[in-house]
Amino acid sequence: MRRPRVALYHHLPSGGAERAMLELILRSQSEVEHVVFCINAGAGGNTDERASLLREHGVEVHETTVRSTVAGRSSEWTTVVPRILAAERRIGNRIDRLGFDAVVVHHQRYTQAPLLLRTVSTPSAYFVNEPRRQSFEYDLRPRSGASGPLRAVSGPVIRGVDSAVRRLDIAATRSATNLMCNSEHVREYVWRAYGRDATVVPLGVDLERFSPDSATPRRAEVLAVAAIERPKGLDLAVDALALIPKDRRPPLRIVHSRSDATYAMELQQRARQQNVRLVLEHRIGDEALVERYRSAVVCLLTARLEPLGLTALEAGACGTPVVAVREGGYRETVQHGITGRLTDRNPASVSEAIDGVLLRTESFDPRVIRSTVEQCRPWSRAVEAYVETVARTAAR
Predict the structure, then answer these.
(1) Do residues 353 and 343 make contact, with C-beta atoms less than 8 angstroms apart?
(2) Is residue 148 over pLDDT 60?
(3) 1 contact partners, CB below 8 Å, separation of at least 6
(4) Using an 8 Å Cβ cutoff, are 322 and 301 in contact?
(5) Strand partners, 281
(6) Is the dihedral of CA 78, 80, 81, 85 positive or negative?
(7) 118: closest CA among 9, 229, 19, 236?
(8) Alpha helices in the chain (DSSP H)
């Protein structure tokens, strides 16, 4: 039977969602023929690297460059975003002309659901890693001081822009033929936000790349792999470490691909006030990331309502225990007492869990952690759900 020929569009920043997207493309090659369309607008992703990787595996890639040099950050929403939306219209029209069986769409950095979903007439499957949370969560709604992508916009414009983006995101998501998501938590959230059912594609990790190494010594440090942004809850991480006695308090290493400058300054000041040492690393390569997982004593996950928690799976594949707040997708990717500990969202609970790992009062076997991830999150399950959804979309 002929493989469905599928256009895939994305404008993802670097991170777990990007790595998972690449894995799905490459692992489903025998059943789906992908042609990738992406935008390169200096958005913090490794566009050239991922395009080269895909081409090495025989995947056709079309890059659209959008000029992103502007006079100031406040010009992003008046200059860069309109250019990206115009590019999405052109890409959508091109996809329709080329006669694909279906189009798979991933997030767009600024508007979440891309405008392309409303442009194409080709049947579409939208992979919702998470809904546009600032549209539905009170604490993330823009007020006098915006954070996230809208932080560049000031004054009375903020709420107007946010309202327009909210409408675009909802309309675009509801325009998709089918929806996919990465966890049961997100599936329920998608229903509440958009009134649509989504197929869960239970993402895994590359077990060959993320693997233990007995030759790598463990450092007495806590690792967090997260953007330095308020929803990631890194202030909780600092407060929790501050409760560990100073003579054995480990440093907090934060590996991040993007950062909110205001929040980063607040975090560093908070750490200085409480004598918590921060080590910040920006956009390290995959090999270095694996080394950080292997060498950390524990990986700390403090994001609020994290959609899935691929970091928990990556750490577990390297045999490293995790401490995570008992919320969102962490409840699906962390097995309490086996691959790590789930805790309440307060500094004392998180600190107690970290200290238990440091003092070995609660022992975690790296081999058991690794095998648990292998058994619970095989890529075969994700590929099966993905291919089925693509085929169902193409049949429309």
Answers:
(1) yes
(2) no
(3) none
(4) yes
(5) 255
(6) positive
(7) 9
(8) 16-27, 47-56, 81-98, 116-119, 157-175, 184-194, 234-242, 261-273, 286-295, 310-317, 330-333, 347-358, 366-376, 379-394
43: pLDDT confidence band, cut at 50, 70 and 90? very low
Contact 164, 290 (CB under 8 A): no
What structural domains does the chain harbor? 5-204+378-394 (3.40.50.2000), 219-376 (3.40.50.2000)
Chain segment 303-323, per-residue pLDDT in tens? 999 999 999 999 999 999 999
Please give the helix or strand (H or E) that residue 178 lies within, else none. Answer: strand 178-181
Distance CA 353, CA 341 (A): 7
Structure tokens at 153: 């916009």
| Bridge-based pairing state of the strands 178-181 and 199-200 | parallel
pLDDT at 47: 67
Tell me the pairing of strands 124-128 and 178-181: parallel
3-state class of 202 per DSSP?
A: coil
Q: What is the pLDDT of residue 161?
A: 85
Q: Give pTM, 2 decimals.
A: 0.92
Contact status, residue 264 vs residue 230, Cβ threshold 8 Å:
no
Determine the residue type at 305. Answer: L
Quote the percentage of the chain above a pLDDT of 70.
94
The confidence band for 49, taking pLDDT boundaries of 50, 70 and 90, is: confident
Taking alpha carbons only, the member of 136, 124, 77, 73 closest to residue 96 is: 124
Calculated CA dihedral for residues 199, 91, 172, 32, nearest 10 degrees:
-10
CA 65 from chain center: how many Å? 23
Tokens of 5: 């020929």
Cα separation of 333 and 56, whole Å? 31
Helix, strand, coil in percent for the chain, rounding step 5: 45, 20, 35
